[in-house]
Each structure stands twice: as structure tokens, then as C-alpha cells.
Design goal:
mainly beta, 5-stranded antiparallel β-sheet, globular, 322 residues
């Protein structure tokens, strides 16, 4: 399957997050406006839980991150993840593809090869399905977890306040298939649509008082990305586990929204992985281009998202530097 921060501009404001009872963060939506970092944290949704974490696709181990990333990039299927509404006989069936701005009761099904709604899934990091919604310009990002009804319909309330073109991604592991796939479909929010440019390339962003920087390069052959979290200039060394990881990274390519979702090297409690300030990911992107990176991390019982824009680095440029 494909392995999903706010903007790269440190002068942008972000709304504070809200912690759920019991210390779990309610993080229902993320939006970057005008290139700035802007997290929209909604209250408890009647249908489905909001932004509780990204999936470890294919099980609870983080052992083989390069293979994991490649699978998430859709290499096994010959295409990057999220570009197809149908894959391996499974189809993402949205109840509606056009909605009005604001809070909507979003419903959809995953149809199996026989055309009926699938009701049996393997868990991906404690969830049967992970729903990611992104604006086409990559200036808005939401990661939420719907609830499945008995007939196989998934339901969640989404708050999409602005008109525009959106892409919906579902990370699922149908039990009969035996592996994880990412399906994608378009969603239009009606109204006057003023397209925005993809935020500029930058390696530092600020979200709710946290400064996050990224080191490393995006390459098709794979490389390490290290993201460092600081608060008020001081390293954060007590990041909290967020569904079995200290960070989750979604990468989307500008232009077609090819989708990659990776998890960090190491895991909480393994005796060797520190709880910050650095979180390291092995990433391999599906091809050259400009990408938007969304990092989820948890601290003080609140999940936050930092976003960056990076361009790929050609292999020959990397070799020339050495």
C-alpha cells in the first residue's frame, strides 16, 4: 500500500489542538491557507473518530521500511498509490462526488470483486480504514477514521469549508485480498473556486509553537528523511507514541497526487528508538516532481501536523556532491 505537516512557512498561524478525554488528541482536519500552517481541530464527530493516526500497513512491525515504502508507492501494481478508483477488483464507491461547503455527512463503500460492499478488513494500526482528504493544490489536508456500519457503509462527518477540488484516499486491507491497497476518488466542493499555488519549497515549518525541520532528499531510488521537532527553540525529547509510532508521514505529488505513506525507522519501546527530537523515515517517491509532505506527531496529548514542500533530487546530482 502506499505509505501520509502543515506549511513550510514559519510565520503562519495555527489554531491550537484539542485533547480528548484520556489524553487522546482529536485532530480532525488540517488546512494550510496561503502557504501557511493552519490546523483545523474539530470537536468529537458523531460518526467516526478524527485523526487518530496513520496505519502501519500490513501489520504491526516496522522492520522493513524500504519494502514497506515501495509497496505503499504502488510499485507492485505498476502505478503509484491513490491514482485509481479501482484496484485488484476493489472499488471506492462514494455516496456523492459533489457537496456543499461546510460540515457534511460523508458516506462511501469499498466494493469487492463481486460488486457488494466489503465488511471484513484486517486492521492497519488499530483501524480498519484510514481516510485522507487533500485539496488538489495541497493547501488542505485531513486524516480521519470513519466508522463502518453493518452493511459496509463508512460514515464520518467532514468539515470542508472552502469550495474547490479535493482528492479522497482510503487505505484498506480487505481480508480476502490479504494486503493493503490505496484507492482514490475525486470530490468537488461547490462554490466559487479560487485556485492557489502549491506552497513554496522550504525545509522549516511552524505549527502551534512547534518548529519542525527536514533533512535529506526525496529520490526515486530511496533515501532517509530526518524530521526534527523543537518547541520554543528547544529539542522535543518526549514525543508520545501515536498508534505505535513517533511519527507518520504522508507524501503527495503535486500535479497528480500520487500517494506515499511511510512510518519511521524503529518503534516506541524497542529499546533503541529515542522519543525525539529526530524522527527518521526511509522514503522512495514514484518519480520526479514536487511533493508535499505531511508529518503527524503527538506531544502533550495533542496530534499536530507539519507540512513541507520538497522537490526530488536527481541521482546524478547526489553522486556529483560526493
Amino acid at each position: 500500500m502506499t505509505t501520509t505537516a502543515h506549511t513550510t512557512h514559519v510565520n503562519a498561524a495555527a489554531q491550537p489542538g484539542h485533547a480528548e478525554p484520556g489524553g487522546h488528541a482529536e485532530h480532525s482536519s488540517h488546512a494550510a491557507h496561503n502557504g501557511g500552517a493552519h490546523a483545523l481541530h474539530d470537536g468529537h464527530a458523531p460518526h467516526g473518530d478524527a485523526h487518530e493516526g496513520h496505519a502501519e500497513h500490513g501489520g504491526g512491525t516496522h522492520a522493513d521500511h524500504s519494502a514497506h515504502t515501495a509497496a505503499h508507492a504502488g510499485h507492485e501494481a505498476g502505478l503509484p498509490g491513490g491514482l485509481q478508483i479501482t484496484q485488484d477488483g476493489y472499488t471506492l464507491d462514494l455516496d456523492t462526488t459533489i457537496a456543499e461547503p461546510g460540515r457534511i455527512d460523508f458516506r462511501f463503500r469499498i466494493l469487492g470483486p463481486d460488486g457488494s460492499a466489503v465488511t471484513e478488513f484486517d486492521a492497519i494500526h488499530d483501524r480498519e480504514l484510514h481516510l485522507i482528504v487533500a485539496r488538489r493544490e495541497l493547501t488542505g489536508f485531513w486524516h480521519v477514521h470513519p466508522q463502518r456500519e453493518a452493511d459496509g457503509t463508512w460514515v464520518i462527518q467532514l468539515d470542508l469549508p472552502e469550495a474547490g477540488a479535493y482528492r479522497v484516499f482510503t487505505d484498506v486491507a480487505p481480508r480476502a485480498l490479504g494486503r493493503t491497497i490505496t484507492l482514490g476518488a475525486d470530490l468537488a466542493i461547490a462554490g466559487h473556486y479560487a485556485p492557489q499555488p502549491v506552497p513554496a519549497v522550504a525545509r522549516v515549518t511552524e505549527v502551534q509553537g512547534y518548529q519542525v525541520s527536514v533533512d535529506g532528499e526525496l529520490r526515486t531510488e530511496g533515501d532517509l528523511l530526518t524530521l526534527t521537532v523543537r518547541k520554543n527553540g528547544e529539542p522535543v525529547t518526549d514525543l508520545q507514541p501515536y498508534l505505535a509510532a513517533f511519527g507518520h508521514l504522508v507524501i503527495l505529488r503535486a500535479g497528480d497526487l500520487a500517494y506515499v505513506h511511510v512510518h519511521p525507522n524503529g518503534e516506541p519501546g524497542d529499546g533503541i528508538t529515542p522519543s525525539g527530537p529526530e524522527v527518521t523515515f526511509h522514503t522512495a517517491v514514484p518519480g520526479p516532481g514536487t511533493y508535499r509532505l505531511f508529518l503527524d506527531f503527538k506531544h502533550n496529548n495533542v496530534v499536530r501536523t507539519a507540512a513541507f514542500t520538497l522537490a526530488t533530487t536527481p541521482r546524478q546530482a547526489h553522486e556529483h556532491q560526493h
